[in-house]
Amino acid sequence: MSKAWSGPDGKSTSPAGKPAPAAPLPGVPVTIGAPGKRRRGGGATSSHDERQGNQPGEPGDAEPDVRFTLANERTFLAWNRTALALVVAGLGIVQLLPPFPRVPWGRHALGVPLIVLGAVVSVTAYQEWRHTQKALRRSEPIPQSVLPRILVGTITGVAALSAVVLLVSAVR
Amino acid sequence: MPPGGPEDRSPDPSALPEDPEDLFPGTAAERTRLAWARTAIAFGAVGLAMLRGEPVAGLLVLAVTPLIWALGRYVSATALPQTRSRRLLLVTVAVTSVAALATVAALLGHGGPVRLR
Fold first, then answer.
1. For residue A5, what is the nearest residue in chain B, using CA coordinates?
2. Which residues of chain A neighbour B110 with C-beta distances below 8 Å?
3. First to last CA, chain A
């Protein structure tokens, strides 16, 4: 077992060497978004974990199962890579494409929104990471992400604008 | 034990868990380390891409790459929540700064629509 999966105090959390059927780590219940509050006692949340997970001003919220924390973190990182890809795409449109004939503003109209979208995606991903982590701590339902809608809306708009720019540069 | 009988449904402690991660929980930490490495590589790629048009901005982004790599190395499964939050905030600040640099490069760079006189 990886070192990262031992308890914070180094104790193995898998009893008697058997594969744990569920929640091998100290944490909240495995069911994400279970309606009830987190379990007290029963070994699901160790006292050490409670100390570690408590946020200032939020007494009683336990740090969730570390697998959920890591999955949440990977989602955040994936959105940030998406944001970087959007920035590169926007910069590439502005700097690498030849100017559209008769539409000198075309490259900037297409590229700058993508770059701005990259910044928006990154900031929103951080906010959503925080909200999801909070929901996991309280065993509340995971809030729905607005990022796919933002991404779809902006990319659709940029695609439509691309069509307009191409048509104008070809027809006029 | 007759196959399909009710005895079959009794929990078998040696059976595979429903989630394979329960058997090999370290894979989640490994996947997260790989995600951090991909993010650092993405920063490097962005820096290299920016080098052509804006060498200074490209070098700045390239300088951030080892920082992101190091952040990934030091984010462990047992990191305190506040520490983890600050580290992830650093990633957002870095990506937002890259976007700001790219916007400036797009608007003020070579052939941009805005000319500084």
1. B26
2. 95
3. 67
